[in-house]
Specification:
The complex is a heterodimer of chains A (281) and B (280). Chain A is α/β, with parallel strands linked by helices. Chain A has helices at 6-36, 49-62, 75-83, 96-103, 154-168, 176-182, 191-199, 215-218, 247-258, 260-268; strands at residues 40-45, 68-73, 90-92, 114-119, 121-126, 146-149, 184-188, 205-209, 221-225, 234-240, 272-273. Chain A folds into two domains: 37-118 and 236-274, Periplasmic binding protein-like II (D-Maltodextrin-Binding Protein, domain 2), CATH 3.40.190; 121-225, D-Maltodextrin-Binding Protein, domain 2 (3-Layer(aba) Sandwich). In chain A, helix 2 (49-62) packs antiparallel against helix 10 (260-268) and helix 3 packs parallel to helix 4. In chain B, helix 5 (102-114) packs across helix 8 and helix 11 runs antiparallel to helix 14 (248-277). Classes of the chains: A alpha/beta (281), B mainly alpha (280). Chains A and B meet through helix 3 and strand 7 of A and helix 13 of B.
Amino acid sequence: MQGRKPQGNKTIKMLFIFIVGFLWILPAKSMFAQESDNGLTVFAAASLSDAFHSMAKHFEEKDPGGNIEFNFAGSQQLAQQIGQGAPVDIFASANMKQMAEAMKSGRIDSASVKIFAHNRLVVVFPKGHNGPVRALNDLTAPGLKIVLADKAVPVGQYALEFLDRCDRSASFNPMFKDSVLRNVVSYEENVKAVLSKVMLGEADAGIVYFSDVTQSALTEAGMIDIPDDLNVIASYPIAVISDSKHLARAKKFAEYILSDEGQQILAQSSLLPVNTTPTPR
Amino acid sequence: MNQIHPPTHPESSTNTKNSDRPGTAGWPLVLASLPLILFLLLPLVGLLFRVSSTMLSSSLKERQVIEAMSLSFSTTLTTVCLTVLFGTPVAYLLARKNFFGRTLLDALIDMPLVLPPAVAGVALLIAFGRRGFLGPILGGAEIPFTRTAVVLAQLFVASPYYIKSAASGFANINRELEQAAAVDGATRSQAFRTIIVPLSLPSIIGGIVMTWARALGEFGATIIFAGNFPGRTQTMPLAIYIGFEIDLQIALVLAVILLSISFLVLAIVKGVLGRQLSPL
């Protein structure tokens, strides 16, 4: 046990050098690959995932030169990541609050911020079973399981605003909000998690964006519309990050989203285009 | 051939021998270890410096912090008890019996260690949800979004640490001791209680601590299976994650508490176990 044979020592040394060398080469190679093309990194609210995936497909056809890669998450999370210097070219938020949060980093020029879409809230419920929720007033039924997004998430904030409006409306019980909140079993981290739990049937109802209820979601979930006077219309701002390495192409992509073609793609994903703005509250 | 590789293996005798001899760690070894040690250390130290004591004491009065802490401690305690209760037979089975499918069982116990916790969360939801395939059997008992779900999520991801550690402890005991006890008239359960458990106590305790620490840090499976509700299913890691986006101060304070407690418990238990081990 006093010492290894020199031969074994040498083999281990060689192995060590080989591994360390390999680790150095690996990142260098991938860095090179990234520099050579003009790909974009887009941080976007989770509710935009369907619309932006097809947006990217159309844009890449028109403007080849690198893939567009997405990071979809709750806007509040993305804003935090931007604040901490995440490498990103474009930020699309689900509300102005989180855009403002991201702007605190100084990486976003306020002139470049533009509203590009609107969205509205709907109540979703699991289909197929004789679920207890068929109308907005059913949300107060005792023992119901409701999932909302956390108040940190834009859609969670909007849902609370919607409940406040119900309280003020004559057609609802003045304790409507409290009764609904008593039924909440979870405050989820993003809007897709709310929808998933409803689609799985684990929750009796949830509040999500209209655009989240895609064709495939409709196989598992039903939808209750919220009338305009109670609904909260979400506005989605987009901005180009000023320290982007691909500023020109990033601007082009943002412009494409605002173009007629881009707006049509948004509409196909059930987002409300900006040129047909529904009367904001 | 022993197939069990426990996460903690303090009982290796060659290890203690080497570390008892100062001077064997030459500067090249120290230098080579330094990058990873610093990499592990700096984020933790950075976190400690970010939180002042006034911040700590003011946040400790916050309801959300207290609720998250007490929930974390009560659920992890339950998880550890359930793990010992139901994990010990499994560990003993793995250590002692050569049976058909033993390799498969060993691999099954490894699964939660390699699965992303989010997968565990989805799987638990599909199994134990009210529309899951155990839903009809469970009858009216609705598990998701409850404390029970928090415990089950922790049990799923953390119990293998105990099972593997205890199994390696059991496997290291000389079978002749057991046979000798049987010759002297001890029943199997007597032999287990008076010989096997005391002799493998370091592995058992090591496993318990690892399971507890992993359960305390559990996040992915919990948020998917149990959801996030302050006071009911929002454990410390969930409060840190959500708090990171609303109230950074709460997140930082909880992170420091979680870090300090885990580190202290791990260090103390390792220290105690290490001392107990040296005469062996």
